[in-house]
């Protein structure tokens, strides 16, 4: 597997680790630090940023992860028709063409959402909302690229079934 092909998996792995750490920090601040600051009569530590960071990580994690699932063929399939290997390959190619169209639509509307919300920021961290909606652009484009790659170069096992 090439280095470029590993980048989305690496990004998703980092996002997953960061999301777990973010959740742990949120729990610590809420259930440990609030009682401590109350007991010491100090100003509470603000932790509203935890939700915003978690939301952004979840958006990117979900959309990039869905694209990886397409490339890895990890999404479930239901085989109800008895097709020849060529017929199955044709159905798979039509399926991936539809997935690519949906990915491009997601990316297109993600760009429109980025433009529409480019002047807005999140309440806690003041991060531009285009960063959040950029997840739709990244995930949609990656979904389309992976779906097209499954049409152009299906996995080796499917090619072997034709011979």
Largest sheet: none
The total domain count is: 1
Number of strands: 0
Mean pLDDT: 89
**What proportion of the residues form beta strands (DSSP E)?**
under 5%
How many angstroms separate the termini?
Answer: 25 Å
Give helix and strand order, one letter per element, not per position: HHHHH
Helix content: over 70%
Shape: elongated
Description:
The model has no long low-confidence stretch (mean pLDDT 89). The chain has one domain. Helix 1 (3-39) packs antiparallel against helix 2 (49-71) and helix 2 packs parallel to helix 4. Helices cover 75% and strands 0% of the residues. The protein is mainly alpha-helical. It contains five helices and no strands. It starts with a helix and ends with a helix. The chain has helices at residues 3-39, 49-71, 85-116, 129-152, 156-162.
Summarize the structure.
The chain is mainly alpha-helical. 75% of the residues lie in helices and 0% in strands.
Chain-wise SSE layout:
Layout: H1 3-39, H2 49-71, H3 85-116, H4 129-152, H5 156-162
Helix pairs in contact: 1-2, 2-4, 3-4
Note the main attributes of this structure.
163 residues, mainly alpha, elongated
């Amino acid at each position: 597997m090439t280095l470029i092909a590993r980048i989305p998996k690496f990004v998703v792995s980092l996002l997953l680790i960061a999301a777990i750490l973010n959740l742990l920090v949120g729990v610590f601040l809420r259930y440990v630090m609030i009682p401590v600051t109350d007991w010491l009569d100090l100003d509470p530590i603000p932790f509203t940023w935890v939700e915003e960071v978690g939301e952004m990580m979840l958006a990117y994690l979900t959309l990039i992860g869905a694209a990886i699932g397409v490339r890895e063929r990890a999404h479930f399939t239901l085989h109800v028709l008895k097709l020849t290997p060529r017929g199955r390959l044709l159905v798979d190619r039509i399926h991936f063409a539809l997935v690519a169209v949906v990915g491009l639509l997601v990316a297109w509307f993600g760009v429109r959402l980025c433009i529409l919300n480019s002047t807005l920021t999140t309440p806690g961290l003041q991060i531009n909302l285009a960063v959040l909606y950029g997840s739709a652009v990244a995930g949609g484009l990656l979904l389309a690229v992976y779906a097209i790659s499954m049409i152009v170069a299906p996995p080796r096992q499917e090619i072997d079934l034709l011979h």
